[in-house]
Amino acid sequence: MNYIQQDFSVQFSYKVFFTEFLFSLENRLFNDLLESVHEEGIMRKILFVIDENITIHFPKLGEQIDTYFKDNPYVKLVPEKVIVAGGEIAKNEERFLTTIIDAVNEHGIDRHSYIVGIGGGSVLDLTGYAAAISHRGIKLIRVATTVLSQDDSGVGVKNGVNYKGKKNFLGTFVPPFAVFNDYHFLTTLSDRDWVSGISEAIKVALIKDAAFFDWLEQHAEQLANRDKEATQYMIKRCAELHMDHIAGGDPFEFGSSRPLDFGHWSAHKLEQITDFKVLHGEAVAMGIALDTVYSNLVGSLSETETNRVITLLKTIGLPLSHEYMNLTSADDPIFAGLREFQEHLGGRLTIMLLKSIGTGYEVHELDAQLIMKASQILRNAQESPNQQKQPLSC
Amino acid sequence: MNYIQQDFSVQFSYKVFFTEFLFSLENRLFNDLLESVHEEGIMRKILFVIDENITIHFPKLGEQIDTYFKDNPYVKLVPEKVIVAGGEIAKNEERFLTTIIDAVNEHGIDRHSYIVGIGGGSVLDLTGYAAAISHRGIKLIRVATTVLSQDDSGVGVKNGVNYKGKKNFLGTFVPPFAVFNDYHFLTTLSDRDWVSGISEAIKVALIKDAAFFDWLEQHAEQLANRDKEATQYMIKRCAELHMDHIAGGDPFEFGSSRPLDFGHWSAHKLEQITDFKVLHGEAVAMGIALDTVYSNLVGSLSETETNRVITLLKTIGLPLSHEYMNLTSADDPIFAGLREFQEHLGGRLTIMLLKSIGTGYEVHELDAQLIMKASQILRNAQESPNQQKQPLSC
Ligand SMILES: NC(=O)c1ccc[n+]([C@@H]2O[C@H](COP(=O)([O-])OP(=O)(O)OC[C@H]3O[C@@H](n4cnc5c(N)ncnc54)[C@H](O)[C@@H]3O)[C@@H](O)[C@H]2O)c1
Ligand SMILES: NC(=O)c1ccc[n+]([C@@H]2O[C@H](COP(=O)([O-])OP(=O)(O)OC[C@H]3O[C@@H](n4cnc5c(N)ncnc54)[C@H](O)[C@@H]3O)[C@@H](O)[C@H]2O)c1
Ligand SMILES: [Zn+2]
Ligand SMILES: [Zn+2]
């Protein structure tokens, strides 16, 4: 046969920094990072894209950035900041993508310039996508400002926007140049967004790290009460587990297996059919609860461990159920989520379930009747007070 | 300092096949490729995107594809073919991108399905981009139908579309799943497109392989006359040199050096200001001529070798100059190409020049006066008959 074989590998490397007051003049982290990659005689451009809600909660931020980068020897700041709406709308409406791309064009941002996104997971997903497709990839720096983006979405290699209401229909796999998790930004987060970001920590603990799950149980109330030390530990451990998983596995997801999507098949659909009124982390909490109880119903997870998961979710203040999660027929729209999940992933349907806390296993089909049963159990559990000692179901 | 370090590498691998009559039932290449990656019990979908001019020159192609994949055990063919305009318009007008993405959505094409692009470099760049951003990357199979796409653009890792008239402003680096170079498609190519595809072979010979340049000189007339054996050798050797370069160097172009862009800084600009009436390969021929004569003027390339390059270009039937390449002032629009080239690449301006045939070297600035002088020499050379023995210039 007449052919040429091509084989090569590409190395990727980046750091996720944990800090506070990133743009105060005393904090040299950002500057030092730029210095570490500086090439004599070359000034890179740097363009900021900021979540509108961050500009509202931190009205001095623009000024601080200007001051921080004034006379910086490594980068030339584009004075105009690109402000985009915060939340899922940033990923839903094409005009925000266009705004960033037009700014790249207008300000002559090149492949060796930086685009810095500051915001929640939505703004970071949007900014990352715009950076990834402009000039075949501009260096992206993420400044994550929500619990969810600091412990999960902001530290990984994915970006994306929605298309025709479908989550992340357009996107790429591109590692960031660097990530800054600045704890101070979290202080202005609403309680609802705060709590919602904890579900990804519970998720990763459930499939990867029983000891971290124990720790989460022991600190559940502190986490719900926004205790700083506990939250900082949780974010770092969660980020670490996510990053380990990415590096150790299949970073660009060429295979069909996606353990980090535990609990997500129903979550993505729930977000969509509620028009994103249910937050990602809330939907994930319900998805975790559903697949945990289902794991119990198929006999792989013990009743005790099932109850521990439900109790932790409730203690943190995460929801277990929702009117659209009241599944009574195989025609329920949530079930379309299974097909869409497979379509997005491709290949064989692969869903992670739990064997025990800290250990998952994969199945390739789900029993609709048992899913419905699990959803009914969760409707009851949602209403009843926390009953750690009592059996949950059936 | 409080941080997590992330490091990983991603392996890429694909084959470029040289064949004829890819979709005739006797040709099992495509089928065998699908078989080689088949997983028991899983049918992948396969969607075709075809260059409109191919559908005109090969009116039975659609039927042949249907017959080829009928009852195929590995893939389920999407019967509807997506037809997009051939040529640069495919990359210029957003509606073609949208058509492909909407087909992905409508037909439920997932990350483990295949998108097959059949066409010239333009349609392949467009299709590759659509595949790269849909669901964060659908497997792309390229069937290259022009000399240029078979010997250069189709075998590499880049895709892209134009934005606001800027070449490849949007795009990504994503290796294909596989490439088929079917010689039979080339038979219907216009002479102009044929000849134009040879300039990339001259380019890669000049910077990488003096022996291949000798061979090109010896076969120049056969190549211009569309001799099959000579063309097949040229395409394969050129593809090989391109692919070696990609694998051996910096596949995703993280650095500033892009040797394969020899002759391209003025070429991209010339294409744009002539509204793509000058073909990519023609513009590259003029760009090669310009940077070759410039190499001579700065004293790095001998007069003999300079003349050999000019003579080869002329013998093949490639242009040396153009009214817009009549450079007389630093305000000439072509010079803006230098800045845009740098902007697209980023970092330090890095231009390859020639030390000798087969060996390039990099410089970081060009002398506008000498560029103008080179352009005038080429205007004269364009008009004069081939004078292999006579000194070219000044
Ligand atoms: N790329 C990935 O790997 C990945 C992983 C998980 C989730 N995600 C995506 O992340 C998105 C959710 O991100 P999120 O949970 O961070 O929510 P979000 O980005 O939608 O932000 C929630 C709200 O908080 C606001 N906000 C952000 N920072 C704030 C602050 N410091 N103070 C006050 N308000 C602030 C935002 O403007 C928004 O209104 C979803 O689109 C989800 O799909 C991506
Ligand atoms: N991705 C890369 O690495 C890379 C490298 C070099 C060039 N390119 C791009 O490739 C494009 C040029 O590609 P091209 O030179 O193949 O031209 P093209 O794709 O524009 O095709 C030229 C013309 O030939 C027609 N055509 C295609 N195949 C034919 C056939 N077999 N018979 C008859 N007509 C046929 C097309 O419809 C079009 O009208 C440019 O956009 C250039 O920027 C990309
Ligand atoms: Zn998630
Ligand atoms: Zn080229």
UniProtKB/TrEMBL annotation, chains A, B:
Pfam family name, one:
DHQS_C
Name of the protein this chain belongs to? 3-dehydroquinate synthase
- Source organism per entry reads Albibacterium profundi
Cofactors named for this entry: NAD(+); Co(2+)
- Specify the signal sequence span: none
Fetch the InterPro entries from UniProt: Dehydroquinate_synthase (IPR050071), DHQ_synth_fam (IPR030963), DHQS/DOIS_N (IPR030960), DHQS_C (IPR056179)
GO MF annotations in UniProt? 3-dehydroquinate synthase activity
Residue ranges constituting the 3-dehydroquinate synthase N-terminal domain according to the UniProt record: 82-194
